[in-house]
């Protein structure tokens, strides 16, 4: 079975798991005068995250959801307005910050342009209309097939935010995939934002965790918010050690995942009914079922019968995600299965 449901299915290898046995553990929830916990492995990971992102400090969170929500609830207070993409994952999937039961934040949305990057004119229209406390962007963008925001557009967003005096938070769950596609570094991408979250438990292959990065003051406040969200952990070095390994050993190989997704898409250019994404940039590709005469759920069920696990994602789309352990031959077979089903429609 070829499983392309998500890169969260990436499994840690034996060298990564062995790092847990020698991790320097302590109580990460007990803070010293500088606000650092007692788990030395966590401290090392947070310092590494700060370095790789070019920020002053990092904060280990149990998940990307926790990292994003801690960020929003640190930047904002109940009733504040946040400017988000109309298909932003931290709203569509995570939701916590915008629900009346919890964060009680308000949202206004901006659109993407034809290149699937944030439309700065759309963003400015909302900034003009009323007080916005925070701008949120997503790089790569999950629901548009892993599209990247390039450095030119990142700079334009930064300039716009500065003009209106609004900070920028980036959901960078897969920002290392973006850096690989753009031929740059995470630090260069992150220089245009005030805070960012990135995951180590997707393509980087660690079992658990995400890092929130920003100024020391911001991270100190976010640490208190993380505690309120249930994120103060004890011997969290067993999580941090594999993440350290991931950042040391698994960053460069993300190009392979991007290339496998692009290769799969290249084999699906002339389908009869299904419309395959052709501008694949990173490790995600989408299939549009709108004109296929079949629902995304039905298409996924037929694929499963042939040995391919994929999933509906939003609207009429099905998503395929490539990650460590998925080979070029797997990508070729996945494309063949999609073609087989399309030929039967």
TrEMBL record:
Superkingdom classification of source: Bacteria
Listed InterPro entries: ArAA_b-elim_lyase/Thr_aldolase, Low_specificity_L-TA-like, PyrdxlP-dep_Trfase, PyrdxlP-dep_Trfase_major, PyrdxlP-dep_Trfase_small
Keyword vocabulary terms for this entry: Lyase, Pyridoxal phosphate
Residues annotated as domain Aromatic amino acid beta-eliminating lyase/threonine aldolase: 3-289
Residue ranges of the TM segments: none
Keyword Lyase: yes
Modification N6-(pyridoxal phosphate)lysine, positions: 202
Record carries keyword Chloroplast: no
SUPFAM superfamilies documented for this protein: PLP-dependent transferases (SSF53383)
Gene3D superfamilies cross-referenced by the UniProt entry: Aspartate Aminotransferase, domain 1 (3.90.1150.10), Type I PLP-dependent aspartate aminotransferase-like (Major domain) (3.40.640.10)
Cofactor(s), names only, from the UniProt record: pyridoxal 5'-phosphate
One GO BP: glycine biosynthetic process
The enzyme's E.C. designation: 4.1.2.5
Alphabetized GO MF terms: L-allo-threonine aldolase activity
Enzyme type, top EC level: lyase
Annotated GO CC locations: cytosol
PANTHER family for the chain: L-THREONINE ALDOLASE (PTHR48097:SF9), L-THREONINE ALDOLASE-RELATED (PTHR48097)
Similarity comment: Belongs to the threonine aldolase family.
The protein's name: Threonine aldolase
